[in-house]
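Why MazG family protein? Reviewers of the renewal asked for a concrete example.
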Amino acid sequence: MPSEPEPVNDVPERGGSGRITVLLTSPRVAPGLLTRAAWQALSDADAIGSAGGPDRPDVQAVIGSGLVVTQVEGDVAAHWSWLSSAAADGREVAWLVGDDGEPGLIHVVADQLTREPRPAYGVELVHGSYDVPGARLIDLVRVMDRLRRNCPWDQEQTHESLAKYLLEETYETLEAIDTGDREHLREELGDLLLQVAFHSRIAEDDEAFTVDDVAGDIVEKLIRRHPHVFGTVDAADAAAVEANWETIKAAEKQRSSVLEGIPLALPALALADKVLGRAAKLLPTEPTPTEPADETERIGRELLTIVHEARTAGVDPEQALRATINTLATQIRTTENGG
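Here is what the prediction returned.
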């Protein structure tokens, strides 16, 4: 703990017991969107201090409300001296914590809250704003922006150079789903999300679109394709929801073929499932059999028949095969280990 400093001169005199209010805010929430308790603490304070100057957004917001904020120079000890000396003299002071959370100062405040005997003045931590769900996505955008500006490797990347990583992360995410490892899935979803942020940042450099455009488009699509949630359409079950989705999608896309838009790079079983799903209304249930030209065509037809059976049974053929392979792999490892 720093030694007791001389009383500061830039805090007005006040009678009665002093008080220190340390105001914690989220850097992911607009600076002026503080709780009622936070604004009350700032209004009641004889002085408001901060390690940052008027260029800091939260300081700007407080100054913009008509309050005065003093920039206190120095380290944690100097900041605490400014606060504790004022409170010891019976003044009420508030402190705006910066984006980094100022852990050094918070540690000092925590010591004050638990020490015996307690100081004559009061010490309080007040949360002025809270993260909303999805707020950490703002951090991802900020970090990605900094990497793109300052990291040589990130600066060199293009949509084309990153394509392989997008594919790899997709398959690693699928593997995490197959294993049922939730911690692994959490990690892989983060890696996959990074690819979305990275591609969006590259597009921003090209003045094509931004990550906000990407998010805005999918939000609008979800609202548009869920009229039973955001509109007045009724959907009694999942089948009705899917039918509405396909009807709206068809009107949006105006495709000339049911096969248009199917990525041919899909794994073969997934591709077959997609093609059969799109063509279900056009193809006969039982195609007229013809003699296969060779073994390759015969096996191909049999695999397609299995995919058709899977669709009829409501089974994802790609996931079914992956699950079976995983079971086989487990058996092989058990045998290798002498089990």
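Residues 1-16 have pLDDT under 50 and may be disordered. This is the kind of structural detail the renewal will allow us to pursue systematically.
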